[in-house]
Write a structure and sequence with these properties.
Elements (H helix, E strand, L loop, with lengths): L2 H18 L13 E6 L2 E7 L8 H7 L11 E4 L13 H8 L3 E4 L11 H8 L3 E4 L3 H7 L1 H9 L3 E8 L4 E3 L16 H13 L2 E5 H7 L14 E5 L10 H4 L4 E5 L9 E5 L5 H10 L4 E6 L1 H9 L5 E6 L8 E2 L9 E5 L2 E7 L11
Parallel strand pairs: 3-4, 4-5, 6-12, 6-13, 8-9, 8-12, 9-10, 10-11
Antiparallel strand pairs: 1-2, 1-3, 7-14, 13-16, 15-16
Helix pairs in contact: 3-4
Length: about 350
């Protein structure tokens, strides 16, 4: 393959990635996938996986073409290996074979053992020219949640909290205080954090966050889909008049006392609250990513067990002078941005978090 062909492959694969990201927040636990169909170095059709349970990217791109005979001289670009099994939809690899594509270019192998390598095998057995690994690093990055879910058998874990410039995550609380959030960040920053919520499949907090803050845990400051809400509440102490119990949105309550899935408020009984037990429960619920927003104890449990993939810490331009000290990370920050008077610091733990720590 000459450099011109490689540059064109990279160009069209980059377009696949752009399309794939349009499904962010709507396709989990499925992967983000875009597809681009090209004839004579010109794009004739595009598609992406738009919603979980609905048509895959390849199907959407192919369905836009009226004269399917053109596919005999076409190349289709896909950022992820086409599926080779029957799930909620038929296998896309079979569709590509039936469509008689001249060439298929794939960004990365599918980590799902039901697929991995099998889709490519179907294409090569049909004598379709197949290229794998174009912009592989970039393709893996956008599907880090999907990869983590299948390779580590747990959700991708994103930690998030806000702390004051003097290092406090909250004021000290007593039970007779009004239930309210002690805001640290600016309203503009809240829009960003709600966008983060929209991009993850679930959001998780401890029961004391429900007790003290009475949050809704939704994306009310952003237009995206609200995540699945999960509470860690071993003894079922969170007040039942809380917003998360009285609204119409789904809620999972991980606890030690009862199982009850008869309503949208589902109680899931665990044997204990070891981190691995929680991870196993989330994996069983088919949750591929979760943003953990508090409280301090819950965040520190994941940090001390070294089970997290990213952290985003908001430093507000406020001081409490005393209160509940924020969690601490040992890792070096990757980058920092400023939003009005707030700073957001980004951390990554992707190289060291393969399993819970025994320490």
């Amino acid at each position: 393959m000459d450099s011109t062909s490689l540059n064109l492959d990279q160009y069209f694969m980059n377009r696949c990635i752009e399309l794939a990201l349009k499904g962010r927040g709507y396709v989990s636990p499925n992967p983000l996938v875009g597809a681009v169909i090209v004839v004579d170095n010109e794009i004739i059709s595009e598609g992406f996986h738009e919603k979980y349970g609905e048509s895959h990217a390849e199907v959407n791109a192919i369905n836009k073409i009226k004269d399917k005979n053109v596919l005999k001289k076409a190349t289709i670009y896909i950022n992820l290996e086409p599926c080779a099994h029957f799930g909620k939809t038929p296998p896309c690899a079979s569709l590509l074979v039936r469509s008689n594509f001249k060439r298929v270019v794939i960004g990365m192998l599918d980590p799902n053992p039901l697929v991995s390598g099998k889709g490519i095998q179907m294409l090569t057995q049909a004598n379709i020219a197949t290229t794998v690994g174009i912009l592989e690093t970039e393709c893996k990055k956008i599907n880090s949640r999907f990869i983590t879910f299948h390779s580590k058998k747990r959700p991708y874990i994103l930690l998030k909290w806000a702390e004051t410039k003097d290092g406090y995550i909250d004021l000290e609380r007593v039970n007779d205080q009004p239930r309210t959030i002690n805001w640290i960040s600016q309203p503009t920053t809240q829009t960003f954090t709600h966008q983060w919520r929209a991009h993850e499949q679930a959001i998780l907090v401890g029961w004391k966050t429900i007790l003290y803050d009475n949050p809704s845990l939704t994306t009310r400051a952003y237009y995206g889909k609200s995540p699945i809400r999960i509470i860690i509440d071993p003894a079922l102490k969170s007040p039942k008049e809380s917003i998360v119990y009285t609204d119409e949105l789904p809620l999972y309550i991980l606890n030690l006392k009862k199982n009850d899935a008869s309503t949208t408020k589902k109680f899931i009984q665990l044997k204990d609250f070891e981190i691995q037990t929680i991870l196993d429960a989330l994996f069983k619920l088919n949750i591929s990513s979760v943003i953990i927003e508090g409280g301090k104890y819950t965040l520190e449990q994941f940090i001390s067990s070294n089970v997290w993939d990213e952290a985003r810490i908001i430093i507000g331009n406020t001081s409490f002078e005393k209160g509940l000290a924020s969690p601490k990370l040992k890792q070096t920050p990757q980058r920092e941005i400023k939003i009005e008077e707030d700073r957001i610091i980004f951390y990554s733990n992707l190289e060291t978090n393969s399993s819970p720590s025994n320490s």
